[in-house]
């Protein structure tokens, strides 16, 4: 659990870190649309190479990205089981009683896994190379046109940023509580299912208490600094596009266009 990396910022000095957060958010959305296009494995190889090149340019350790993918293991196993019992296409690979495994089920599961892996790589690259404050500013700037429709752009951006920032903090508090309870004899690994459920319940209550306490401290700190939702505020940092941002958006747009053509031709 303490290895969860989603929402964690890596303080490095790379060309990707120095890009405008708005450009990175737009590029991420463009890549997510391209990932969901039915381009086949050839298209995913092209997207994977582009994303991998971005990760290398950001000097992001590959183990860091793999760690972000580990929490999806249970969902992948669940999808595999569902596909085995629901998809009866392709070549029959294994027949044991009522259990029949077809090649179509495995290929469909692998197809989903590739999509998930690419999506996690893109989102991890965004959160790991963008400071939470910059991410908040970027989301707010992109949501500004919605203010005409009375949409609270700043409040939405603030909530997203706080949620991302709280993920590693909650994980840290969870590990601290687990270690404290282990020192008092609580066992999370051994014992019957009922004992494991009771151990987890004993973890949830103090975790919620700590989370509410942190939320209250954050609210008091924001109020003490004069933060008022909805009021106009001056900016210490003003976002500006540079040549690298335009290059990123151009490459991402060209890649999306080629994926659209590829899916139509395919």
Structural features, described:
The chain is mainly alpha-helical and 266 residues long. It folds into two domains: 1-131 and 238-266, no CATH class; 153-229. The protein has nine helices and two strands. It has helices at 21-35, 40-57, 62-69, 73-86, 103-129, 132-143, 153-182, 193-224, 243-265; strands at 92-96, 99-102. It has a two-stranded antiparallel ribbon. A hairpin with a 2-residue loop joins strand 1 and strand 2 (99-102). The model has no long low-confidence stretch (mean pLDDT 83).
Short description:
Helix content is 67%, strand content 3%. It has 266 residues and is mainly α. Strands 1-2 form a two-stranded antiparallel sheet.
Order of SSEs? HHHHEEHHHHH
- On the 0 to 100 scale, the average pLDDT is 83
Number of domains: 2
- As laid out across the biggest beta sheet, the strand order is 1-2
Q: Helical element count?
A: 9
Oligomer: single chain
Quote the distance from N terminus to C terminus.
41 Å
Q: How would you describe the shape? A: flat
Low-confidence stretches: none
Tell me the β content: under 5%
Radius of gyration: 22 Å
The class by helix and strand makeup works out as mainly alpha
Percent helix range: 55-70%
- Major sheet details: 2 strands, antiparallel
Write down how many β-strands occur, each being a DSSP E stretch of 2 or more residues.
2
SSE layout and pairing:
Elements: H1 21-35, H2 40-57, H3 62-69, H4 73-86, E1 92-96, E2 99-102, H5 103-129, H6 132-143, H7 153-182, H8 193-224, H9 243-265
Antiparallel strand pairs: 1-2
Helix pairs in contact: 1-5, 1-6, 1-9, 2-5, 4-5, 6-7, 7-8
């Amino acid at each position: 659990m303490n290895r969860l990396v989603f929402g964690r910022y890596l303080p490095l000095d790379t060309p990707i870190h120095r890009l405008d957060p708005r450009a990175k958010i737009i590029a991420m959305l463009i890549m997510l649309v391209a990932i969901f296009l039915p381009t086949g494995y050839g298209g995913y190889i092209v997207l994977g190479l582009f994303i991998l090149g971005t990760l290398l340019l950001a000097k992001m350790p590959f183990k860091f990205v793999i760690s972000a993918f580990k929490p999806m293991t249970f969902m992948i196993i669940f999808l595999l089981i569902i596909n085995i019992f629901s998809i009866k296409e392709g070549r029959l690979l294994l027949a044991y009683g009522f259990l029949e495994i077809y090649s179509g089920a495995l290929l469909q599961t692998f197809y989903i896994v590739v999509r998930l892996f690419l999506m996690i790589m893109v989102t991890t690259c965004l959160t790991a190379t963008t400071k939470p404050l910059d991410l908040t500013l970027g989301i707010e700037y992109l949501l500004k046109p919605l203010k005409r429709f009375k949409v609270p752009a700043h409040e939405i951006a603030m909530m997203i940023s706080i949620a991302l920032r709280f993920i590693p903090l909650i994980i840290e508090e969870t590990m601290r509580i687990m270690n404290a309870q282990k020192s008092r004899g609580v066992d999370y690994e051994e014992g019957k299912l009922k004992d494991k459920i009771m151990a987890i319940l004993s973890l949830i209550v103090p975790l919620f208490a700590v989370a509410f306490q942190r939320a209250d401290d954050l609210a008091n700190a924001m109020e003490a600094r004069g933060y008022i939702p909805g009021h106009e505020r001056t900016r210490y940092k003003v976002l500006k596009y540079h040549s690298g941002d335009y290059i990123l958006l151009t490459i991402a747009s060209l890649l999306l266009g080629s994926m659209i053509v590829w899916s139509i031709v395919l």
